Amino acid sequence: MPQAPPHRPPRRRGGRRRRPLLEEPPVKPLSEAPEPEATKIASGATVREVAESLSLGSAEVIKKLMELGEMATLTQTLPDETVMALAQALDQKRHICPVE
Predict the structure, then answer these.
(1) How many domains does the chain have?
(2) 90 CB contacts (<8 Å, ≥6 apart)?
(3) Distance separating alpha carbons of residues 91 and 97, to the nearest angstrom
């Protein structure tokens, strides 16, 4: 009758262990951010133009519009009131100046 192999210890599983950091990263002092300048958007701008002028992704702008109860596509023009409400919902310090 064959003998069973001797009992082996269990294998270690998992990835590499990271070494803890020896030094703490330096803490940057908080500086007041300058107030953003007023962004000028042409009256009747599309969702894409509004997203580009606010430096945001178009999907993020459409998502925020849906949260505000407004359904809009990428190429649809937005009324000035919607643009103002959108800017206020995204960032309270930003001002939109409709340009005709």
Answers:
(1) 1
(2) 54, 56, 61, 64
(3) 15
User: Does 62 map to a domain?
Assistant: yes
Half-sphere exposure of 30 (CA within 13 A, CB side): 1
User: Are the CB atoms for 41 and 83 separated by under 8 Å?
Assistant: yes
Q: For 9-59, write each residue's pLDDT tens digit.
A: 777 676 666 666 666 667 777 666 666 667 778 888 899 998 888 888 999
Cross-strand bridge partners of residue 74 = none
CATH number at residue 52: 1.10.1660
- Give a yes or no: residue 20 inside a domain: no
pLDDT one-digit tens code per residue, 83-94: 888 888 877 556
Can you spell out the DSSP letters for 19-88?
PPPSSPPPPPPP-PPPPPPPEEEETT-BHHHHHHHTT--HHHHHHHHHHTT----TT-B--HHHHHHHHH
